[in-house]
């Protein structure tokens, strides 16, 4: 190929490939009327055939939300959101509920195939063959407001594990849902959590019984498809005594020039000796280079380590969304419980991120580790905001925090806002933060060995993020590394 | 509600109202009342303070410091009762000394003869200070700047001419105390011209047990290549409040160094805003706080890197005993133009008591890419291994503890080269231990 054509092709592929999940699926939808009021809350509850207690719960949340004001303290800026100008319920039309995957709308299956999500109980995620022998992954696929398919349910049931859409759990396991829903993130916890509590439509429910080690990775894949909708999913994971589970979450959305709101709530409960590993690769549509469109990702994620020696580990790779605003947190109640937070957040073009964690140490000898890597490029603004609080009873508690920021280009910003509150003299808290750019000598070293500028930056960024990426399950680690590369395209040179 | 509140008893207004009330009563008698620009400045400040009042914990910058104990009091005009220099703190070894009692300059207690620079009282110099006073401290932005602009009664004004080495100048600000709580609002203006230098040793103090508020505002300008070394010894009464705010603007190649030693006061806040405005401007902010039962101390710093190639260094250490609370908030703001910034900040707290609390918020806000910025924060108790090591060598437990606390503070003090300040620190530390021993006994 002549050099010129090759160059043109390369340039084209770079500019076009930036968000390859940006297509939309043409599918007949069942929508609620636009706007938000008590009737919409009742409509959603009725659609889901919910019991009275849940409707009442939603209405209380809605009342609380109406009395609240949208918070503005984060280092993100966005025009006022018109909460009446969106649909709060959008579900692909289906005549009857599908009994098996074969009955699911083929258009939907094709969509997930295109996204590389295995709804056909195949062994591996598309695109990572060659990554070695991978274990099976059970997937719950949430399309706009509803869950469209959950795989490997039967096999999981044999172990006593419940993995299903939360709407189904409300029907089949109401006692579990009622017992735990809202106990980690109360309805009126914050503005977006209250909104979610009022209008949440679906999400995943996981229960791992006592002593069971979940035999495969569980995964939920969120897809926003419809226009002018928001996605408000609710995830509840309960790991009973001595159980273990690893859960993955992925998400994408079509390219549209409007901003769409994603306000999810995730609640994790770890009882005595239980371990939950929660990994996220967040790849919502980030908007175009000029900052048009993209998802507002305003999410509340919190884990309660209730039992002694319980452990929750959050790992997140945040590459998408116009604005990311979330703080996956751990309440360390149980003695010797452990909280971990590993995060990579990238902002390119005009993306904004204000993310971090809260580690609330209540029990004795609780331990937490925070490793956060922020990368800013283009005109991106990236903020780490975190809280480490040691309560008076948390004797012997221990925290270590490391926040590193990398700046690529002189139009972006990197900010660090840690809060440290210690009320126990036997606790030990350490915090370190650094901000720098990619060292010239590292770049020179790579270039000298024949790497292009972009490859060199990719390599160095991957090295910078290694500590976090190694926490991800294999399949996600591969995907995350590719994503980092794509997210930074066009930011160099 | 509290039916026996002091208002009900005395009829005097409390909190913010007591200050506004004083302003209304004093406005015709405060210095500069006849100067239109001063009157306008005070009026603007009063308007802002009337609207906003004192900050509350809902203000992010005051998240950890609650002014409620201050607001529960009503403050009155001080009636100075210091007649000779017997009550003054000991000299720090400087030849020149400016003394302010209850916020007013006392020529009779000061020694300011034959100095190679101009120094005097703000109240006297006011007609010449149009444009200089209020340039850095904007009442609209900071409630404490507004409070001070509204009520400042006097202060130190210094200008060190280009190239002059000013030596050591002592500034003493003393409250005389009294039956009713009193409030002082000094406004100090310091200008170091091109290539000039000065060491300013500031002592703020008052009689033990006295209830008063010292709320000074410093406006400091360091011109190109100038250098100000600002050492501050705060030994307030354990019933007193100190809310001090420093605004320092440093031009290219200039340096502002600050060291604060705080060992007193019921509630103390040291707020320092430094703007590095020219290439290679530098600042070093260090501090040590020794807190005992019932004390609250807050150090809040903002370093604004507004020019390239500027280094900034901060080391703050806090030792907490009894039921005390230490707060540190430090922000490094790097503007886009400030390439090759080198910012470092370390904040450490040592807890000696199970009832002490430490809150720390180090913060980086960075808009330039070619920078090296880092901060670190640690909170913990004395290291058991270190104690064991010293004990194993026959050092008694108490002496070992003291040795380790002194070593912990050393890093913040090292930057202060002046032996007078080092000696002052050791004196203060010793007094603090003695007070601790008394409390323990």
From TrEMBL, chain A:
InterPro entries: Fe-S_cluster_assembly_SufBD (IPR055346), SUF_FeS_clus_asmbl_SufB (IPR010231), SUF_FeS_clus_asmbl_SufBD_core (IPR000825), SUF_FeS_clus_asmbl_SufBD_sf (IPR037284), SufBD_N (IPR045595). The gene is sufB. Residues 222-464 form the SUF system FeS cluster assembly SufBD core domain. One of its GO terms (biological process) is iron-sulfur cluster assembly. It holds the Pfam family SufBD_N. Belongs to the iron-sulfur cluster assembly SufBD family. It comes from Roseomonas acroporae. This is Fe-S cluster assembly protein SufB. Transmembrane segments: none annotated. Residues 158-214 form the SUF system FeS cluster assembly SufBD N-terminal domain.
């Amino acid at each position: 190929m002549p050099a010129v054509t090759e160059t043109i092709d390369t340039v084209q592929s770079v500019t076009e490939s930036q968000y390859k999940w940006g297509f939309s699926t043409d599918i007949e939808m069942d929508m609620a009327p636009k706007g938000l009021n008590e009737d919409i809350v009742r409509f959603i509850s009725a659609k889901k055939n919910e019991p009275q207690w849940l409707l009442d719960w939603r209405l209380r949340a809605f009342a609380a939300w109406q009395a609240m004001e949208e918070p503005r303290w984060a280092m993100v800026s966005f025009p006022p959101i018109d909460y009446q100008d969106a649909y709060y319920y959008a579900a692909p039309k289906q005549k009857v509920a599908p009994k098996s995957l074969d009955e699911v709308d083929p258009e939907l299956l094709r969509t997930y195939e295109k996204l590389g999500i295995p709804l056909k109980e195949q062994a591996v995620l598309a695109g990572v063959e060659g990554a070695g022998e991978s274990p099976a992954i059970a997937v719950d696929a949430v399309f706009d407001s509803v869950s469209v398919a959950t795989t490997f349910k039967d096999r999981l049931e044999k172990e006593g594990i419940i993995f299903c859409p939360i709407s189904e759990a409300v029907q089949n396991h109401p006692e579990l849902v009622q017992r735990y829903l809202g106990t980690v993130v109360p309805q009126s916890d914050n503005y977006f959590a209250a909104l979610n509590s009022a209008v949440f439509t679906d999400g995943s429910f996981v229960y791992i019984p006592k002593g069971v080690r979940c035999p495969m990775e569980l995964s939920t894949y969120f897809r926003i498809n419809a226009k002018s909708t928001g996605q408000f999913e609710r995830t509840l994971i309960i790991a009973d005594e001595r159980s273990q589970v690893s859960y993955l979450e992925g998400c994408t959305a079509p390219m549209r020039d409007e901003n769409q709101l994603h306000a999810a709530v995730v609640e994790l409960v770890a009882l005595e000796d239980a371990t939950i590993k929660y990994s996220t690769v967040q790849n919502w549509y980030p908007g175009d280079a000029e900052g048009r469109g993209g998802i507002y990702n305003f999410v509340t994620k919190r884990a309660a380590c209730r039992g002694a020696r319980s452990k929750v580990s959050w790992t997140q790779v945040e590459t998408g969304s116009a604005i990311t605003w979330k703080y996956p947190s751990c309440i360390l109640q149980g003695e010797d419980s452990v909280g971990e937070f590993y995060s990579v957040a990238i902002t390119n073009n005009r993306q904004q991120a204000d993310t971090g964690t809260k580690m609330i140490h209540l029990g004795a000898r609780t331990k937490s580790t925070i490793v956060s890597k922020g990368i800013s490029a283009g005109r991106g603004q990236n903020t780490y905001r975190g809280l480490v609080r040691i309560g008076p009873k948390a004797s012997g508690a221990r925290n270590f925090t490391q926040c590193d920021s990398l700046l690529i280009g002189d139009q972006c910003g990197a900010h660090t806002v840690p809060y440290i509150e210690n009320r126990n003299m036997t606790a030990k808290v350490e915090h370190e933060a650094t901000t720098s750019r990619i060292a010239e000598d590292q770049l020179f070293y790579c270039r000298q060995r024949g790497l292009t500028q972009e490859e060199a930056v990719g390599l160095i960024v991957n090295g910078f993020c290694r500590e976090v990426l190694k926490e991800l399950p294999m399949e996600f680690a591969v995907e995350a590394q590719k994503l980092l590369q794509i997210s930074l395209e066009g930011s160099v040179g | 509600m509290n039916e026996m509140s002091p208002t009900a008893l005395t009829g005097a207004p409390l909190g913010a109202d007591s200050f506004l009330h004083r302003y209304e009563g004093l406005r015709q008698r405060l210095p500069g009342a006849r100067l239109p620009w001063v009157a306008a400045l005070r009026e603007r400040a009063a308007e802002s303070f009337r609207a906003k009042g004192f900050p509350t914990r809902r203000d992010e910058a005051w998240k950890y410091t609650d002014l409620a104990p201050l607001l529960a009091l009503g403050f009155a005009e001080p009636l100075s009762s210091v007649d000779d220099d017997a009550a003054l703190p000991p000299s720090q070894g400087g030849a020149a000394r400016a003394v302010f009692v209850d916020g007013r300059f006392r020529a009779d207690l000061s020694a300011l003869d034959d100095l190679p620079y101009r120094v005097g009282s703000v109240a006297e110099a006011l007609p010449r200070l149009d444009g200089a006073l209020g340039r850095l401290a904007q009442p609209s932005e900071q409630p404490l700047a507004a409070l001070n602009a509204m009520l400042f009664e006097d202060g130190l004004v210094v200008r060190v001419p280009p190239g002059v080495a000013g030596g050591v100048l002592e500034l003493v600000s003393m409250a005389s105390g009294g039956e009713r709580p009193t409030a002082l609002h000094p406004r100090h203006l310091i200008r170091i011209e091109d290539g000039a230098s000065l060491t300013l040793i500031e002592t703020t103090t008052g009689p033990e047990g006295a209830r008063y508020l010292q709320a000074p505002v410093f406006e400091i300008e360091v011109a190109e290549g100038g250098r100000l070394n600002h050492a501050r010894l705060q030994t307030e009464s354990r019933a007193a409040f100190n809310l001090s705010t420093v605004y320092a603007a440093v031009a290219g190649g200039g340096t502002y160094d600050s060291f604060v030693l705080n060992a007193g006061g019921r509630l103390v806040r040291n707020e320092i805003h430094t703007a590095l405005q020219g290439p290679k401007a530098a600042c070093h902010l260090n501090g040590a706080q020794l807190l005992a039962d019932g004390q609250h101390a807050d150090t809040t710093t903002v370093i604004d890197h507004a020019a390239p190639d500027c280094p900034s260094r901060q080391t703050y250490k806090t030792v907490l005993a009894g039921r005390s609370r230490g707060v540190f908030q430090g922000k490094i703001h790097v503007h886009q133009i400030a390439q090759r910034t080198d910012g470092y900040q370390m904040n450490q707290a040592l807890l000696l008591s199970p009832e002490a609390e430490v809150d720390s918020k180090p913060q980086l806000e960075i808009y330039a890419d070619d920078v090296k910025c880092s901060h670190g924060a640690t909170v913990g108790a004395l290291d058991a291994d270190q104690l064991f090591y010293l004990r194993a060598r026959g050092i008694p437990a108490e002496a070992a503890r003291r040795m380790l606390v002194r070593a912990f503070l050393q890093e913040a003090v090292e930057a202060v080269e002046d032996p007078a300040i080092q000696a002052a620190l050791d004196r203060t530390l010793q007094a603090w231990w003695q007070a601790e021993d008394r409390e323990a006994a």
